[in-house]
From TrEMBL:
This is MSTO1 protein. PANTHER family: MITOCHONDRIAL DISTRIBUTION REGULATOR MISATO (PTHR13391), PROTEIN MISATO HOMOLOG 1 (PTHR13391:SF0). One of its GO terms (cellular component) is mitochondrion. One of its GO terms (biological process) is mitochondrion organization.
Amino acid sequence: VVAAWASVPFPALRGYSLPDTLCTYQQDVPWKLLSSCREQKVSCCFAQSVVLRGICKERKQPASLLHACESTEEVLQRYLHTLFPGAFSTSHVLEQPCNTLPPYPQFFSSLLTRQGFLLDKPPSYSSAAVESIPVLAALQSSPVLHTLLYSLYKDLQKLNTRRWASFFSAGVEQDDFQEALQELRTLSQCYEMGFGADGSEDEADSD
């Protein structure tokens, strides 16, 4: 099970390199959770696959370990290893950005250039339509899945199955449904960190 994350567009300032941008996100990640889960901040993960497109590494005097990397791929990989030590991470970098020409909806901020990079301040002139944007997308196996899966289990547990005769007439047995519920709860426990969470869940169940 994985959760989907994305940054559309990727928050890169015009004229800044990828190391410059990532260095400003040392405590948090520059992408947002897309999966329906209340808990959004990720402090660790087990495995992840990250794709970045539309960003190239500019050659500048090394100012950090990220700036000393030889390629864009190495910059992203080192950033992921620094932010999520011990996690299995794969990363891919594509030079081609995502095109946003019509009929793509123009819902972008006026702070974006035609190429989708952020400006320091709003332009004094009417900005042209955004033609392309850099994008980062990630699929991540992390503890947020415990919250997501357990919430799904709790919601399904509240269903009064007697009111869904058509559901069981399709061939689903009540015992199979209950077994699947328990498997869902067991699956959620595979993604929790540490111990003692079961007690709080059991108390919530009793409530």
